[in-house]
């Protein structure tokens, strides 16, 4: 490792930020230096990086000089404010928030699906929404083979999608209920313990939630194919880690469940876990900490000519966030794209 | 109340049996006598009926003489064995199991949807599956108005659908996990606490579960319309009571979300709970003990010409089982149908 490569994790104290540091270390990311940033409130805190600890530095506009690559998981507002300064300093940003995803200047990348979109990037690369990532990883090989026309998806999303405070809310509410105390709702508008909330992110004008519309728009952008139509219902369930998705697709060409299984078993990042006779199917409680997107319950849908049902599960904090961001960073290194060509494009 | 009407609850010690007794009492069912039956193991046990208690009698083939109406919730095997003897003795059976649902001799009834199917019954009337009941209650008015061609449904089903042992399993597993003990799986093949199981009832030849195919076939029978095509993915979630369903429909005629809301708000047994701006949507944790089928998150699906998404929640133990069975019994009384014409039809 001769070439200097300084990497920063921005938002290093959050659930995803910590997982990013863990993932960088586990995958032996070729950084010569790793730095951790967070808001002033968290500056000075130590965060683990392998055997070592990093001291969290305060995030400011002028900290990016000398940093080659910054992986952001600090929320949309912070990203909107600081990413342009990073790019201006020549630091390539991989951002986990929704701030840049639909920006035409920014590629939206899932390496197994559209790594090529990184070529000619402008300094900020967006990491898609967690529920989109696992869906497109599973659907890409089927789209390539049979062309997907329509997707009807219902999600079963874990509280870790809301970060550490979602995890703590579910845990506290369960404890309270089992101890005869009235559980408080601080993070979610209603109780999440032993309940399902058909409401993730804010409601939009069309009565869909922002989370649901992310799945619609991000899928089109990642597939670079406006002919793929997605309709989504996003639901929070009382599960700590891993999102599950019940996905119904209609394809242009006929594809049997068996063909889909074969195709998916050869696809990058996918594990087919589908043998009903042996009670084999993926479940959120059993995929925690895993890097793969698991697909099971693959069945032909007899209500249309070319239809399939399936059940997709992945760790929302790993593949849905930290891992995908680190994989993007790895692609950037491998493709020698850790450089910003137009340093002012986001500064106007 | 002059006319003699003896009613029996068969399987009176189970979760649904107890709810049936409670429901009969609450709704002041016009019985002159109520009796409780269960297997020999439970005979002698007392079960509450309003302020009173009933002593559970042992279920035998010859107990039905003098009983006018028996509501069964004793499982498929017991129903298959005992219901014909009840009918043979002139006792009309309303059965909650799957044993008779697809039998051509037996009407399958949700009173708000197809009470007329009771006319000319042969002595055994079947109560549909819990997840089917709430779906058809919500879809019937839309089907009448715009003709439903296709339904894609994903369920979020509570553990009480498995009876008392499902409730106890979730409770025990949560306690064990929160106390650092390894949770055991006795009722479900995998942990249900903080997990989702895409597996309800047994797997069939076509890789769908029996629960999923119940939704397909029962909907057609209740609507008496083989042109309604249903495809289902049934999932158990860590919730104690109330099933939720994410339902996507395609209709022949155009129907706006607003039209659907108006239509549903006038439909029997339905409550529209749908105002995203006020964070109003139905949730399993907040519908427990309620008799209505709640519908919210009604949105136009822009991926097809005439499509709607919605979110349907109902108490699976009430409307999904006990209440619907008691409502059938009420219809039988009101329509003066508490009589068996051909006492031998099920005895061959």
Automatic annotation (TrEMBL), chains A, B:
Assigned keywords, A-Z: Amino-acid biosynthesis, Diaminopimelate biosynthesis, Lysine biosynthesis, Methionine biosynthesis, NADP, Oxidoreductase, Threonine biosynthesis
Record-annotated active site: 130 (acyl-thioester intermediate), 243 (proton acceptor)
Catalytic activity: L-aspartate 4-semialdehyde + phosphate + NADP(+) = 4-phospho-L-aspartate + NADPH + H(+)
Residues reported in the UniProt entry to bind substrate: 157, 236
Binding site for NADP(+): 13-16, 41-42, 160-161, 316
UniProt KW NADP keyword: yes
Entry similarity comment: Belongs to the aspartate-semialdehyde dehydrogenase family.
Primary enzyme class: oxidoreductase
Subunit structure: Homodimer.
Family annotation (HAMAP family): ASADH
GO MF term set: aspartate-semialdehyde dehydrogenase activity; NAD binding; NADP binding; protein dimerization activity
UniProt key word Membrane: no
Entry's EC annotation: 1.2.1.11
Protein name stated in the entry: Aspartate-semialdehyde dehydrogenase
InterPro entries referenced in this protein's UniProt entry, alphabetically: Asp_semialdehyde_DH (IPR012080), Asp_semialdehyde_DH_beta (IPR005986), NAD(P)-bd_dom_sf (IPR036291), Semialdehyde_DH_NAD-bd (IPR000534), Semialdhyde_DH_dimer_dom (IPR012280)
Domain (Semialdehyde dehydrogenase NAD-binding): residue spans on this chain: 6-121
Pathways involved: Amino-acid biosynthesis; L-methionine biosynthesis via de novo pathway; L-homoserine from L-aspartate: step 2/3; Amino-acid biosynthesis; L-threonine biosynthesis; L-threonine from L-aspartate: step 2/5; Amino-acid biosynthesis; L-lysine biosynthesis via DAP pathway; (S)-tetrahydrodipicolinate from L-aspartate: step 2/4
């Amino acid at each position: 490792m001769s070439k200097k490569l300084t990497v920063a994790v921005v938002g290093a104290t959050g659930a995803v930020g910590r997982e990013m540091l863990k993932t960088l270390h586990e995958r032996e990311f070729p950084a010569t230096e790793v730095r951790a940033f967070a808001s002033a409130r968290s500056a000075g805190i130590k965060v683990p990086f392998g055997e070592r600890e990093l001291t969290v530095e305060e995030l400011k506009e002028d900290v990016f000089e000398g940093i080659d690559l910054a992986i952001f998981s600090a929320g949309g507002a912070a990203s909107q404010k600081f990413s342009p300064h990073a790019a201006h300093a020549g630091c390539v940003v991989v951002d986990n928030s929704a701030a840049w995803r639909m920006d035409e200047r920014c590629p939206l990348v899932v390496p197994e699906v559209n790594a090529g979109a990184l070529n000619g990037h402008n300094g900020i690369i967006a990491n898609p929404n967690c529920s989109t990532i696992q869906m497109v990883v599973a659907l890409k090989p089927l789209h390539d083979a049979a062309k997907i026309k329509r997707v009807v998806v219902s999600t079963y999303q874990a509280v870790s999608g809301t970060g550490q405070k979602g995890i703590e809310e579910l845990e506290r509410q369960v404890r309270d209920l089992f101890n005869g105390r009235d559980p408080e709702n601080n993070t979610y508008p209603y109780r999440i313990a032993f309940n399902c909330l058909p409401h993730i992110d804010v409601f939009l004008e069309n009565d869909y939630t922002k989370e649901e519309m992310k799945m619609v728009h991000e899928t089109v952008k990642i597939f670079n194919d406006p002919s793929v139509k997605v309709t989504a219902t996003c639901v929070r369930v009382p599960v700590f880690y891993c999102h599950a998705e019940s996905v119904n697709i209609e394809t242009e060409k006929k594809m049997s469940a068996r063909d889909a299984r074969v195709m998916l078993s050869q696809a990058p990042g996918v594990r087919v876990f589908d043998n009903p006779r042996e009670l084999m199917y993926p479940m959120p409680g059993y995929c925690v900490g895993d890097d793969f997107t698991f697909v099971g319950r693959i069945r032909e849908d007899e209500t249309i000519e070319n239809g399939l049902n399936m059940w997709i599960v992945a760790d929302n904090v790993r593949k849905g966030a930290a891992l995908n961001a680190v994989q993007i960073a790895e692609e950037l290194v491998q493709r020698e794209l850790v450089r910003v060509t137009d340093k002012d494009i986001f500064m106007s």
